[in-house]
Specification:
The protein is mostly helical. Helices cover 78% and strands 0% of the residues. The protein has 9 helices and no strands. The longest helix is centred in the C-terminal third of the chain and has 35 residues. The radius of gyration is 21 Å and the shape is flat. It starts with 9 loop residues before the first helix and ends with a helix.
Length: 222
């Protein structure tokens, strides 16, 4: 009879030792997405601007961020900027995740805004409403609803991408798994625990985003 070389019985006893690391994972994910939403909305509006210089800057930002790995961006923020200012690991991770997610969120918002019938903007303008106010009151609320499903997907991706923050010494799940594995020589068992934590968190977030989508669909029918 073949016996597995791993002691899986340690998983229940070690599982909650990763709780604090999971909190750090959620923390950098939450603030990274929050920063990304602000940057993404600004970049999407800039991308759609009639001012060529502004649209060009936003296009260049999206092109550069989407064309380079998050790991490189993390290293640029954490190691590259140290010659200018010292940034701690957690803020570095939040900044890098924010700029990284912002580029993808910008394209999500841009697509959602452009999916709204242009006639709604024309109708608002014909009633004397300024373009900025029409965008704020008519276009953006509808665009946000349409953006919820892809934003939910981006949130899940951001949660998993946060594991790269372990490379700059952020005490999140992956770093905890490596540390526990090296001290106990139980790498498989520790990384299985890490995987279970990620599976739980992504499942909960997926459920929450699904509920939000259902609520928005109900409000559209009311």
């Amino acid at each position: 009879m073949h016996i597995l070389p791993w002691d899986l019985t340690v998983i229940p006893s070690k599982f909650f030792l990763f709780a604090e690391a999971a909190q750090y994972t959620l923390q950098i994910t939450f603030f990274g997405i929050l920063v990304g939403l602000l940057i993404g909305l600004a970049a999407a509006l800039g991308r759609l601007s009639k001012h060529q210089w502004l649209s060009g800057i936003c296009k260049a930002y999206i092109f550069l961020i989407r064309g380079t790995p998050l790991l490189v961006q993390l290293f640029i923020v954490y190691y590259g900027l140290t010659s200018i200012v010292t940034i701690a690991p957690i803020p570095s991770a939040i900044i890098a995740l924010g700029f990284h997610n912002g580029a993808y969120i910008a394209e999500i918002f841009r697509g959602s805004i452009q999916s709204i019938d242009i006639g709604q903007m024309e109708a608002a303008r014909s009633l004397g409403m300024p373009k900025a106010k029409a965008m704020q009151r008519i276009i953006l609320p509808q665009a946000f609803k349409r953006a919820v499903p892809p934003l939910g997907n981006q949130l899940i991706i951001a949660l998993k991408d946060s594991s790269l923050a372990s490379t700059i010494a952020v005490p999140e799940l992956m770093l905890k798994g490596r540390q526990m594995g090296s001290s106990s020589f139980m790498y498989m068992e520790m990384f299985l625990i890490v995987g279970i934590w990620y599976l739980i968190m992504t499942s909960v977030l997926s459920f929450v985003m699904h509920r939000i989508e259902q609520r928005l669909k109900v409000s559209d029918r009311d």
